[in-house]
Amino acid sequence: MARPKPETFDKQKTVAENRRARFDYFIDDKFEAGLMLTGTEVKALRAGEATIAESYAEVRGGEVWLVNSNIPEFSHGNRNNHEPRRPRKLLLNAREIAKMTGAVERKGMTLVPLSIYFNGKGRAKVELALAKGKQAQDKRATIKDRDWKRDKARLMRDRG
């Protein structure tokens, strides 16, 4: 069965978004990965509690892991509550893992999580991107373009 195009991921409820990633990196390829979670982690995600601002993904031993993501302990959890910053395994096809491994090792790219969301079936998913870091001048150009678009929209709105 063919996987959907990156723009057509079935996002129902976005839990966490890494808005900084689009500013700090040039986004190349996007992947949809499943998350291997415990019960209290799913409950905390459904409550909308998660941050992926400082997180990244890495390939270890043929598996992809989400590192440094924060899913806080579930408020009504018992002694079996989860550890908030534990590495979480991402579920991907072998071809996708091979593609990521090659890009990270050869091209010096980074695996950056863009968002965590629940799809139409209620499964927790991560939108993962292969990205290349921006230099300072690239970031300044991004700011300049963003300001120009805002000013242009303001001018168009004022003129009618």
From TrEMBL:
Pfam families: SmpB
GO cellular component terms listed in the entry, alphabetical order: cytosol
Signal peptide: none
Annotated family: Belongs to the SmpB family.
One GO-annotated biological process of the protein: trans-translation-dependent protein tagging
Key words, A-Z: Cytoplasm, RNA-binding
Cytoplasm among keywords: yes
Chief place of localization: cytoplasm
InterPro entries per record: SmpB, SsrA-bd_prot, SsrA-bd_prot_CS
Region annotation Disordered: where it falls in the sequence: 135-160
Molecular functions (GO terms): RNA binding
Localization annotation: Cytoplasm
Name of the protein this chain belongs to: SsrA-binding protein
Recorded coiled-coil stretches: none
Its job: Required for rescue of stalled ribosomes mediated by trans-translation. Binds to transfer-messenger RNA (tmRNA), required for stable association of tmRNA with ribosomes. tmRNA and SmpB together mimic tRNA shape, replacing the anticodon stem-loop with SmpB. tmRNA is encoded by the ssrA gene; the 2 termini fold to resemble tRNA(Ala) and it encodes a 'tag peptide', a short internal open reading frame. During trans-translation Ala-aminoacylated tmRNA acts like a tRNA, entering the A-site of stalled ribosomes, displacing the stalled mRNA.
